[in-house]
Amino acid sequence: MIPRLDTNRSVSTPNTGFFKHLASTGFEGDVGTDASERTVYSTDNSIYQVAPVGVLFPKKIDDLKRIAKTLARPEFSSITIAPRGGGTGTNGQSLTNGIVVDCSRHMNRIIEIDPVRRTARVEAGVVKDQLNKALEPYGLFFAPELSTSNRATIGGMVSTDACGQGSCLYGKTSNHVLALRVVLTDGTDFLSRPVREEELRALQARRDRIGHIHRTLARIATDNREQIEAIFPKLNRFMTGYDLAHLQREDGLFDLNAVLCGSEGTLAMIAEAELALLPIPACAALINIRYDNFNAALEDARTLVALNVASVETIDETVLRLAKGDSVWPRIAAFFPDDADGPANGINIVEVLADTSGDLAAKLAVVRAALEGTPFPGRKGFTTTHGKADIDAIWTMRKRAVGLLGNVDGPIRPVPFVEDTAVPPAHLAAYIREFRALLDGEGLTYGMFGHVDAGVLHVRPALDLTRADHAALVRRISDAVVALTQKYGGVLWGEHGKGVRSEYVPAFFGPLYPRLQEIKQAFDPLNQLNPGKIVAPAGSALPKIDDIPLRGGLDRIIGNDIRAAFDNAAYCNGNGACFDFDADGLMCPSYKATRDRRFSPKGRASLMREWLRRLAEKGVDPRREAERLRRSSAALVLVRRMWNSLNPANRDDFSHEVREAMDTCLACKACAGQCPVKVSVPAFRSKFLELYYGRYLRPLKDPVVAAIETMLPLMARTRPLYNLVVSSTIGRTAMRIVGLTALPALPAPSLRRSVAIATPQALASLSGKERASTVIFVPDAFTEHFDPQVLSAAIDVAALLGFRPFLAPPLGNCKALHVLGYLGAFERAAGRTARQLDRMADTGVALVGIDPSMTLAYRSEYGATRLRARVLLPQEWLAQSIERLPSPVAVGDRPLYRLMAHCTERSNLPAAASQWGAVFAKLGIELSVIEAGCCGMAGMFGHEVRNRALSEKLYAMSWQPALASAGTDDVVMATGYSCRSQVKLMAQRHIPHPLQTIRTLLQAHAAAIGEARHV
């Protein structure tokens, strides 16, 4: 039996007192001290795991000042904090055993955009892509590019002095920071700007913390000028953090921000940033060059950089292979074709920018001439990409490269710890040869890609850090790479900050390291800000990289078999793709609406992993528990569940916190399709719920929802009575007591009386030729009973195209059983359905579903039942039969046709929208796909009382504005039954399924042909 798992809620007395005093000061933000909150914030995108004692979510700068003033009280001098941005750091920068301060939940406002001065002022929690989306109407953008730009916060970018692709052209974050509003540990609120000499003198004259800071820094800049000049490398990716080389600027200004940028929260809390903006390049193109091998791509990159292009990005064969299996690849495959001698084993992506199309053409001509006129060993062909959508798609593939490296099977997976080294570009090829020899010598596989124009290499050796011998390699490889970067005049941390790797800071800064200690002392005399990062106080040492707990050490307790059995939950690498801010993006609806990281795929995977670890500590194998539960007496299980639910001793069970996070999951499967590591929350959520509700009572709505699919035929037979009940006050009240909002009324009786049923006898009577022109529709119960007009349209479309339509016998799709964790019942019912589908498929007749979510369940949830049959989506079937569609007939002006595809369909079947586009194009219509996020309904999710507010918020975030922006004459269609239901509920508006529109078009075509013949 799954035991109660203690939450370990207790925190030490000083921390408890800190939180209480902070509350008394009027702190307006949120405070998280539950085990779930601390678990989610104990990891980032690194190999480490450190649990904080709590998390603070300030709402405004006054909250930051309250935190600082509370820290400054003598009784809290031992309390430490660590600011955290997007939480995607690869080096543990924001991990702490103190208190995390996260500005991303509330302090995410764009305060001001000045298009004339080309500046923006933002709070620290604003996401980079969020800012650029707001700047686009002004023709401006914030330049530093990151692979994590859809979740990286400005505060985090400043803290690590982030940059990425295009840094040779645009520089680092610090090159675009005009001012920083920071809060010091004594509560001082200071606006840091570059100052002239007379202003510096005035600041030095102050008798407070600010004066001391400026006196200290000015002295170091003067007294240590020669050492600074000698020690700081002349690299595009200079030594970030405590950047003394740029403290005294060439224009004579003294810039404190040079020290603050890259300081990783060790000097001050960043509240706001004023940023310099640039015009969006008017014209752009990419040249995509293929190579026999990665070394050839690296060697050739030097030639390309010399052509003065905007940027050059290199990707090796490992990343390229993984990209080909990713959801983004179908969109860009044409730009990376296989050559006659096989596929490429390395590519260079060359970016060319210009102000006019003529200038762009001239620059492209120069690059092409160089490629065609100077053959290079190992270079294959190349393509050129124009158009923003195509260029963005290729850059999306490049951005996903880091996450894709984690998308492998088994416990040995690429991990970050030496992944952002930088050397002078002229030395890069030789450096990489030695780097590869080092990893090859250890017998390791790895993936590489990088910003070759800047001399930056991203590499992740594949390790299983649950193994002691692999954990030891972290030290051995790190030491060797440090020596290698120093040999070639580079740095260990060219892009992703220092974090836990700060152990090596003294080696790189040499005699300047004591000066860094003086700076830290001036800003943070009690070492309360992110201690252990970059600088240790005088007389103490920085932690060693192998002193910090590894995630693998905790995963070792779980064991590889159990890790593998729970759908990649334990292999989430923290990449954070699910923290996407964009309301129109697919990942992750519940996170977007709540900004609570527990309610994200990464958060849920972290909680699941911790749950499995706690079970393992108690000697419990959840797989065996699931088997035992399925064999147990239902009556005995019910008694046990009642006892456990009523027992006060179970109130603090950690499982409750895990379940709370699972409850907000919409089971949309965007994570399964969009996560680079393919973490599938709905899959492991179902396994968790099965075990959780084997211990505790289920809510009343669960058995009702689970039974609806099988009860619908009975409801249809008693339709008048059912409609009377669900439309009455008593019926609606009863449903709300159960936990459901009002269910929809049932329309006219089903079509089964008028359409042939695909019985074995009926199918056996068909000849081979007849079967090729036959289609069996496999409707889900919800579409068939609540929206039969769509099924009717499908049947009519089939007939109009010359098919003989059949309906499958009533089958249970059973998805609701799986979603709710009734896995034993699901396997039994789905097994019966699978056998029936296989028998029909064996006749050679096409099977076509209607609703995307329900139809795609046959490809995902049914995997365990070994379903052989492939049930097609309508557009897949129509695309296969596209020759049957008539050529368009000339008509007058047509409305715009717009499609809103179901999010499960979009995220798990990338070709879905293009297939609809091809079908409509054959009918002479250009289909526009609306890139909207989640409608918020997600099957029964939006019908649950507890979820209704969240459901409506999601609808308001994306679908509502998308529908409002459509013209009154536009034909807006939606493929999802739940999506159409949500629109009907929220906007009292009916939007058709594409099949209904296609039927109308085909009928109009037939009428036009008939009329022409009559004439």
Topology:
Blueprint: H1 13-24, E1 30-32, H2 35-40, E2 54-57, H3 61-71, E3 81-84, E4 99-102, E5 110-114, E6 119-123, H4 128-135, E7 140-141, H5 154-160, H6 167-170, E8 177-183, E9 189-192, H7 197-205, H8 209-223, H9 225-231, H10 257-260, E10 269-276, E11 278-279, E12 283-291, H11 294-305, E13 311-316, H12 317-324, H13 329-332, E14 346-354, H14 357-373, E15 379-385, H15 388-399, H16 401-404, E16 413-414, E17 421-422, H17 428-441, E18 446-451, E19 456-463, H18 468-487, H19 505-509, H20 513-523, H21 551-558, H22 560-565, H23 589-594, H24 601-617, H25 622-631, H26 634-646, H27 654-663, H28 670-674, H29 681-695, H30 701-717, H31 719-727, H32 729-738, H33 760-764, H34 768-772, E20 774-778, H35 781-786, H36 788-800, E21 804-807, H37 815-819, H38 823-841, E22 846-849, H39 852-856, E23 871-872, H40 874-880, E24 897-900, H41 903-908, H42 912-922, E25 927-929, H43 948-965, E26 971-974, H44 977-987, H45 994-1014
Parallel strand pairs: 2-4, 3-4, 20-21, 20-22, 22-23, 24-25, 24-26
Antiparallel strand pairs: 1-2, 5-6, 6-10, 7-11, 8-9, 8-10, 12-14, 12-15, 13-14, 13-18, 16-19, 17-19, 18-19
Helix pairs in contact: 7-8, 8-20, 17-18, 21-24, 24-27, 24-29, 25-29, 31-32, 36-45, 40-42, 43-44
